[in-house]
Amino acid sequence: MVPRAPAGQPAARFPAAGAGEHPAMNPDWPASSLLPPHLRPRLGAARLRARWPAGRLVRALGVREPVPAGPVRRPEGTPELFLAVFHQPALVRLRDGLAEVPSNSLVAWRPGQAQEYGRPDAAWMHSWIHLGAPADALAEAAGLPAGVAIPLAAPERFDAALVELHAEQSAAQPDAVVIEALVVLLLRRLARQAPAAAGGIAAAVRRIAERPEERHRLADLAALAGCSPQHLCRSFRLSQGCTPVAYALRLRLERAARLLAAGATPAQAAARCGWADARQFARVFRARHGRSPAAWREKPG
Hints:
This protein is of the alpha+beta class. The chain has helices at 135-142, 155-169, 176-192, 196-210, 218-225, 229-240, 244-261, 266-272, 278-289, 293-298, and strands at 48-51, 58-67, 70-74, 81-86, 90-94, 97-101, 105-109, 115-119, 124-131, 150-151.
């Protein structure tokens, strides 16, 4: 286990463009390298770093940046979406607090989200990118969870994506459409590898199944699943064949049918399954089962 950094260690801050080097960066390392972006067959030893002015979608990036021992702390986060891949085990602030993440883990922090990461006991290396607006909205639309450790089977693909973004943004006439397309592709590919997706959707399914009669807000279910409401609905439809709202309604009507078959009155079944209006319950029940609640009670099935 990587030990927690001493409480008195000074915080490292991300300066504005042109305000100097990040305290954790190697001062002898040039602001950008001469790495041929599309000609290098391997990225294992490649190192690259660059910054661009405010207003750009890609604000800054680094590929396999070596960092001295010690944590980076930004209690107020950064104005940008920040993605980082840690190439060795590191102590990282996740959504649930500080935790050790294994090597080749990616973590995303949304703008303003507190950041803390690094190794207090040894030098470490990471690849990273700061993305300005509208990257946060693009990440939410892609379903990329924030504050979650995402294991990458091929971290060199993340490095290659950063190199390609660097090449396009450093061109004499960078194409903003191409840059945004590359960012969207990167975010969507990372979102597909997020372990929170499958487990989180299962947690949302269980929450609804346990209390289908309650009104479940999409925002609450998405927070439980560790994804955006849009991604929750897409993944839920793939998992259950319907939206969370339709799934809850189906469970309520199935429970109502069982209660009616066991002898409950339509009014009792409606109340126990979350309907305050018995007439509305009767309309929905008939649309689902083809018969009124009273008829179902007399002859179930």
